[in-house]
Structures are given as C-alpha cells and as structure tokens.
Amino acid sequence: MTVSIDIHPAFAAIRRVLVVDDSRLQRHILLSSLKKWGFAEVIEAESGEQAMEICRTDPPDLILSDWMMSGMSGLDFCRAFRQMPTDGYGYFILLTSKSDKNDIAKGLDAGADDFLTKPVNSHELRARISAGARILSMQRELSKKNKVITETLDQLRKAHDAIDKDLIQARKIQESLVPELTRDFGASRVSLLLKPCGHIGGDLVGMFSPFEGQVGFYGIDVSGHGITSAMMTAKLGGYLSSTYFDQNVAMEKRHESFYALRPPKMVANIMNERVTADTGVEEYFTMVYGTADLKTGRVQMVQAGHPHPLLLRRDGSAEFLGHGGVPVGLLPGIEYDQFEVQMTPGDKLLIYSDGFTECLLSNGGMLQEEGLLQLVQSSEPGQSGQEFLEDLFWRLRQIMAPNGGMEDDVSATLFEYNGL
C-alpha cells in the first residue's frame, strides 16, 4: 500500500519511506504518524523478505524496521540491505524492545543508523527521522561535491595525459637538437651528455666544424625549467646549428661556400644582442663556448656565467678556467671577454652545467667544484668520450640525495685533444 501526500519541509531529503513489521497494528500506527507529517511516499512490508524485494526495485531513503520478525529478522534485513549495491544511501532505524548494549552493538555492526525502543513515542520518532533527514541531506550534498571533484579530476587527468604526450614529443624534438653524442675530428674528439630532470630541459650542448682542423663546442644552461626553457633551447639550437652553417651565428661566410669560426667573444656578443632585443623574452642563459685549432692545440673560450671549465692535463693535474662573466640575455650592451689555453695531446677539457656542482648529496651538502674534481679524478683509467661522461653521471647518481632526485638538468661537453 502506497500513500502520496505533500512532504513537510523538515523532511525534504526523504522522498520514500519503507515501514517493515510483521504486525499490521504496528505498521498502521507508524503509517498514521508518517502520513500526518506529510511524507511523499510511504510503503509497508510485512516481512524482511518482502522488504528486500521492494529495496531491489526502488531503494527507499528511510527504513523503519522492527528487529524481531518471523523469517528474516530486522537485523538480517539491515545487513542484507547494506550489502545491496546502490547509488544512494538509505537511513536505517531499528525498532526494538532490546536495550542491552551488546544488542545495540550488533545492530550498529549490521549497518543500522539509529534505534528506537518500543513502544515508539511519536515525538521521539519525529526527532530521530528529522536527524536522519539532515544526515541524508548532507550525504547527498557531499555526493554532489564528490561527483564534481571526480569529473574535475577526470578532466585534469585527460589534460595531463595530453600534456604528457606533448612533452614526450617535445623531448624527441629537443633530442634532435643534439643529433650525435660523440664525434671524432681527426685524432681529437668531442663527446656530449644531456640528462634533463624532466621530460624536457633547459640545457643544451653541441659541436660543429666548418672544416678540418677547426672545431667549436659549447654548453648552455637556460634559466628556469620546463616548457619555456625548452623552447629557448630550441631557439638557441638554431643559432648554433651544426647542420645549417648559414644560420649559425658562430660562423661567418668567406668566399663562395667557405665558412670559418668567429672568435668566441663575438659569438657571445651577437647572441646577447639577439636575446635582449626579443621583446617579451625574460629568459637568459649561461654559456661556455670554445673553439679549438686542432693543429696547434690552441683553445679560445668565452665564459658567460657558466660554471668554470675544467682542464684535465695528461699528467693528472687539473685546473678550473675562466673568470665567470655575465649570463647572455641578462643585460643589453655587454661586451664579453675571451681567454685561451694551450692544450697538448692527451689533455681533456670538461664543460659542465651547475646540475653537477649544485647537485644535493645524501650528506645534505652540494657536490661543488671540489666534489666534481674528485669524481673526475676517481674515474676508471682509460675511460674516454661518451663512456667517461656516462660513468661520471652514474657515479653522481650514487651519491645524490635519495629523496631529492634530479632537481636540475645535468649536461656536459668533453673535448679530448690529440691533434689531427
């Protein structure tokens, strides 16, 4: 039997009520009170089994069930109701003559929300139903908010997946800026290391040679991290292209098709003018750029805020070079200075980013120049080129702070001089 009437505002959260009792008289008493309070839809069942059939068809918002019934007890009905899959929540009140604390604990364990002692007092029943209505109202509001959160998280997940896919592709594009990691120039060699701390990074390394006997090489570290820095490296990769010499600012054309390397300080000046002239570009970068004459071993370099290059002599001695300098793109009108060093066969020159020296170690400190020198000098004898750089990076990872991970890009350029 179903009765439809206008619901009282205090019970707006309760649309459908189910009364379960094997006593017709008890059901009649409860239904009379519920009708008087204006519930929209009231259903009655004479057994737990019948009540379960009703719940499977259209779960109620509120259930008033007697504990002691023939067949399925109210406790068993409550347990079965809670195990039933449903989108919403039904507030369950057990009606019982039991008042023992152990019995109440059993009811709570079965999933009951509240208890009323029989005979039921109508004022107390109304108050308990009102409390249930407030809980249902809060639960539904919470469900709505959870739904919004879930939908938002799903949208964010899709956006993240799309960005992640783009970043993976961006990394491939960035890797194309360094088409080869090692190359021999006669008996000499230039090797490169580029390890971004994320999908993409702001470091760039490279090398090029306009003709036999002359080679240029560099290490660059763009300020910041992420997409903006990576876009800047792409731009700088065009300025120092190893493929298109006509676009490479480090080269000047002589005669019909002959290119030669510009002095390093001139290259820094040109790049600084270009970057500072770009409106809206706030990024700057540090750089060491060097040129080597493979016949004489004479190396000219410019240092623009980048860590000091490390010269490793064949006899085991080592020296940090340069005087610091101002990063490129930071201030317009800067005139850069260059310095030179004379290398002999067997010497090595290491250009590295601050991802090495400022790496946080497991002891809480940073690697710094002294730590880098120790890493270099403890390398396996006979290592050279790419093997030397990869082993250097591997040993850095072994002493890195375990929870810090790579917080900055790590890059290096190694020039090994052995003449032509």
UniProtKB/TrEMBL annotation:
Keywords: Hydrolase, Phosphoprotein
Start and end residues of each Response regulatory domain: 16-133
Tagged with keyword Phosphoprotein: yes
SUPFAM superfamilies per UniProt: CheY-like (SSF52172), PP2C-like (SSF81606)
Classification via SMART domains: PP2C_SIG, REC
Keyword Cytoplasm in annotation: no
Residue list for modification 4-aspartylphosphate: D66
The protein's name: Fused response regulator/phosphatase
Organism: Pseudodonghicola flavimaris
